[in-house]
Amino acid sequence: MRHFTIFLLTLLSSLAALSQSKYRVSYHDLKAYEGLYEYANHSTLKIAASPKDTLLYAIINQSRYPLRPSGRDSFLNNSNELIHFLRKPDYQIWGYTADKDTFKLLSKAVLFPEKMWYPKQSTSGKPYQYRYQQPATLHDGLATGYIQNSGLDAALLSDMMNKIGAGKYPGVHSMLIIKNGQLVFEEYFYEYTIDSLHELRSASKSFVSALTGLAIQKGYIKSKNNAVLSYFPGYVPANNSPLKQKITVEHLLTNQSGLDCDISNPKSEGNETKMNYSDDWVKFTLDLPMIDTPGGKGMYCSGNPITLGRIIEKASGRPLPAFAQENLFTPMGITHFKWNFKPDKSNAEDFCQLYLSPRDMAKFGLMYLNGGKWHGKQIVPQNWVTASGSKHSVVQGVNYGYLWWLKYLDANGVRYNSIAAQGNGGQKIYLFPAQDMVVVTTGGNYNSQSPSDELIQTYILPSFNKKL
User: Fold this and answer.
1) Which residue of 51, 221, 246, 405 sits 20 to 30 Å from the alpha carbon of 106, by its own alpha carbon?
2) Which residues touch 346 (CB under 8 Å, ≥6 apart)?
3) b/e string for 87-104 if b means 16 or more Cβ within 10 A?
4) Left, alpha or beta for 39 (phi > 0: left; psi -120 to 50: alpha)?
């Protein structure tokens, strides 16, 4: 889910660098490009001008992608791919071209609220100054508490908030901290609020892991050692081999399927963009050639959890979102979510991802921190939670469980171990068992470095250094 495919025509990087350094467009002129436009795959996107950094942004769902001016009516994205706007004889914008495709302007009547560009706005007209407030009690199953009783450093958190508010850490949409079972810190930025559903991107994978454990517990999936192809009777995959027949459910969970699908390898046959625009993502995945023995090298492949989702559907006879609602969300009091699990090209820009509020992300993290229990009731089997947070493979140099990352973060020379769900843009659910803490962040730093880890390392974890 990391690759942005909005524009497909690549310019020579030297020319792009030259044009980027010399061409400037005023905010007033950028406003002329704003509107709702056609986009690939019969979808739409919005173009908006930011008064904060005087840049143009393409907005697809919740994701914003900066466009840098490179010439008259021409812009480049972060991959130096070109979009050129088209004008009528009266100079009014009527569409744009990308590669060989032309897309029309559908409407100029699109509102972009000012707060979407600023992390925090002061109501007094003076620079934003943070004041702590205890999170509200909403009777949603989350107990709240006061920061002073948590062991966290209130001064560090105040410094963090002022710097986020001043724009030093752009693109942070929310940050929540649960300490000792209580939500003690909860802040939202830009246009995001306590009620906003946020896209999770690849953090959705950890929810698929939980649902796999539930499907096994309920007997829909007999064992994690079941062969994947046994769930697709009559289907003979391309590049079939005895090795492919040996891929199990557990191999999908640990990203050790052995299929030629590795997001870190641009030459991989399992290229995510190709999958996203294919008619059937599961078939695309299972048709891939084998390049390793199942259970061998860990390779990050979004087709693995997508295939798991389809297996849960086939085994249970229920759509994945309905299975999640019945067996995971409703028992935890999660009533508001969005999940269009339809793994084909209709989901090319939404990635079959789950949308949740950050509070509900935090509840999921707390449930896992407590061994799968929620308010004393076992939701996910404890042995599955333990297995999910145990090392089974190494993916991109990081220890890996069952679709959970086993990461460490260093803070001033002290190492803190965690179990993490994470997705492109800064979508994180960090569990710190030794500190009895859950940290949730959401963000919009798509295809770029999120500041989420730096914030946790600089302003949250140092609170515990002196206690070690």
Assistant:
1) 51
2) 41
3) eeeeeebebbbbeeeebe
4) beta
**Alpha-carbon span 427 to 153, nearest angstrom:** 23
Contacts of 423 (CB under 8 A, 6+ apart): 1, 199, 200, 201, 202, 203, 204, 205, 353
**Whose CA is closest to 375, among 143, 123, 207, 191?**
143
User: How large is the angle between the packed helices 204-217 and 358-369, nearest 10 degrees?
Assistant: 50
- Spatial CA neighbour of 141 closest among 325, 376, 339, 436: 376
Q: Write the CB contacts of 340 (distance below 8 Å, at least 6 apart in sequence).
A: 321, 347, 350, 352
Q: What would the two tokens of residue 165 be?
A: 């508010």
User: Which pair of tokens denotes residue 16?
Assistant: 């792009």
Q: Which helix (H) or strand (E) holds 15?
A: helix 13-22
Give the pLDDT mean for 381-404: 98
Which residues, in sequence order, are bridge partners of residue 7?
Answer: none
The distance from CA 105 to its chain's CA centroid, rounded to whole angstroms, is 29
pLDDT tens track for 130-150: 999 999 999 999 999 999 989
Task: Bin 167: left if φ > 0, else alpha if -120 < ψ < 50, else beta.
Answer: left
Distance CA 461, CA 455 (A): 9
Task: Using the structure block, give the residue that is written with the tokens 């333990």.
Answer: 386
Local structure of 363: helix, strand or coil: helix
Q: By three-state DSSP, how is residue 321 classified? A: helix
Q: How far apart are CA 412 and CA 432, in angstroms?
A: 17
Question: Which residues 6+ apart lie within 8 Å of 216 measured at CB?
Answer: 222, 223, 224, 384
φ, ψ for residue 467 (rounded to 5)?
A: -95, -5
Q: Number of H helices and number of E strands within the chain? A: 13, 21
Find tokens 């467009």 and name the residue.
25
Which residues are CB-neighbours of 132 under 8 A, at least 6 positions away? 147, 154, 157, 158
- In tens, the pLDDT along 370-379 reads 999 999 999 9
Q: How far is CA 187 from CA 119, 130, 354, 362, in A?
A: 11, 10, 21, 13
The pTM of the full predicted model, rounded to 2 decimals, is 0.93
Residues contacting 224, CB < 8 A, separation 6+: 212, 216, 248, 249, 250, 253
Cβ neighbours around 31 below 10 Å, total: 13
Phi, psi for 254 (deg, rounded to 5): -100, 5
Beta pairing partners, 332: none
